[in-house]
Design goal:
With 412 residues, this protein is α/β, with parallel strands linked by helices. Helices cover 44% and strands 21% of the residues.
């Protein structure tokens, strides 16, 4: 497909979504939640055809040599579909934020109110991870925003099946125009760039995926006046403190490596140098159980290299010594994306020093960084995890964040 075809595919989706956006913005909450419940039901009813499409994607990815982490992201099965359906049911039960909040009065007998206004059309470009298709579609629906979604080529058949057999039919059954949520049905990478070049159609784009690609798209968006919510880099950090209990360290290392292809998995393991000789064997034993290899000093790569994105080396964790809790936190600040970091310790004072020194999005004491997830932390799916150092939504971005603030002044 030529670049002009990719551009037209994005524009066609954007125009369809824009036409349907006003109807979605005006939809009653009961209708929105009904569509989410329909989506959950259809995931179960149409599971066979959705999984058949995913099997084709998996077979293609295996032939193309995708690594363990990328194949893990790509895979769907009955259990994952059931979990996604359950999350949709729970999302349907979450209360909508107030549409208007009184802020007080102004001189001359005027009343000031803050309103939440839908953005209109929101784009999303995300990794080849089929479940994210439903996560983002559901969040846009709950926020009353139309959307244009584009996924990695490896997951296109799965995403199309999810749209054709669950997402679009659910909207139609609920009385919402299925044009409100669009999938860009081309594997052409040029479509990703076109998605961030349409400020008149798609003023905000959610970007997920590898750091290099996402940063490149964010820069392209800025050149065209398109705003982005970018989730470019990940990688969880765990620090084994001087007062770390070996059993607790083993538990948290193991829990942090249940999946290798996710951004909040354990990526960098820091160990107190004063207990290095004792805790290193504990760490190596836990990694061996998880079938994960250590990268030990001296390192031939940056400490914060995100192994989930390293095809063929996803099953790796970097290990390094640090002197204390504050140094561990500062290392996480300086060497990683700032997604999430945790400390393992029985010393509350050390934990407090670590938590106070760390500036990342999620900070954990005797808990796994895998908890930095919209559903696990906030009870709703996420569109991504924002690590920007600017005001606005940070951490798991959910439907409640996808709005514009409007000040309304009226007679008292």
């Amino acid at each position: 497909m030529a670049d002009t075809d990719a551009k037209q595919a994005v524009i066609s989706c954007g125009e369809a979504a824009r036409q349907a956006a006003p109807g979605l913005a005006a939809a009653p909450g009961a209708v929105i939640d009904g569509a989410l419940r329909q989506m959950a039901s259809l995931l179960a009813e149409r599971a066979a055809v959705i999984l058949e499409a995913n099997e084709a994607d998996m077979a293609r990815g295996t032939r193309q040599g995708l690594g363990r982490g990328l194949l893990d992201r790509l895979r769907l099965d009955e259990q994952r579909l059931a979990v996604t359906a359950r999350q949709l049911e729970l999302l349907a039960g979450v209360a909508f934020p107030p549409e208007a909040t009184p802020l007080g009065t102004l001189p001359d007998g005027l009343r000031l109110t803050e309103r939440r206004v839908p953005i209109g059309v929101v784009g999303a470009n995300f990794e080849a991870r089929p479940a994210v298709t439903v996560d983002i579609a559901s969040q846009l629906l709950k926020s009353r925003n139309a959307g244009v979604l584009r996924t990695g080529a490896a997951a296109l058949a799965s995403a199309a099946a999810l749209f054709d057999h669950a997402i679009s039919p659910a909207l139609e059954k609920a009385g919402i125009s299925p044009r409100a949520l669009q999938l860009v049905r081309t594997a052409d990478h040029a479509a990703a760039a076109e998605l961030v070049r349409q400020p008149g159609l798609i003023p905000l784009v959610i970007l997920r995926g590898s750091g290099e690609t996402t940063r490149s798209l964010a820069a392209e968006a800025a050149r065209h006046g398109v705003r982005t919510l970018a989730h470019a880099d990940g990688g969880g950090v765990l620090y084994l403190d001087r007062a770390a209990e070996p059993a607790e360290a083993t538990r948290l290392i193991t829990e942090s490596l249940d999946r290798l292809g996710v951004c909040n998995r354990l990526n960098l393991l820091l160990i107190c140098s004063g207990r290095w000789d004792e805790l290193l064997p504990v760490a190596l034993g836990a990694l061996a159980t998880a079938v994960v290899a250590p990268s030990l000093p001296p390192h031939d790569h940056p400490l914060g290299r995100e192994w989930a994105l390293q095809a063929g080396r996803e099953a790796t964790v970097t290990i390094a010594p640090v002197s204390d809790a504050v140094t561990a936190a500062r290392t996480a600040n300086d060497e990683t994306s700032g997604l999430a970091a945790g400390i393992v310790t029985s010393d509350p004072a050390a934990a407090r020093r670590f938590l106070d020194a760390y500036r990342g999005t999620g900070a954990f004491w005797n808990a796994s960084t895998r908890l930095l997830d919209g559903f696990k932390l906030r009870g709703v799916p996420e569109t991504g995890i924002n690590v920007d150092h600017v005001p606005g939504p940070r951490g798991p971005v959910t439907f409640a964040d996808l709005c514009l603030r409007q000040y309304v002044v009226t007679p008292a």
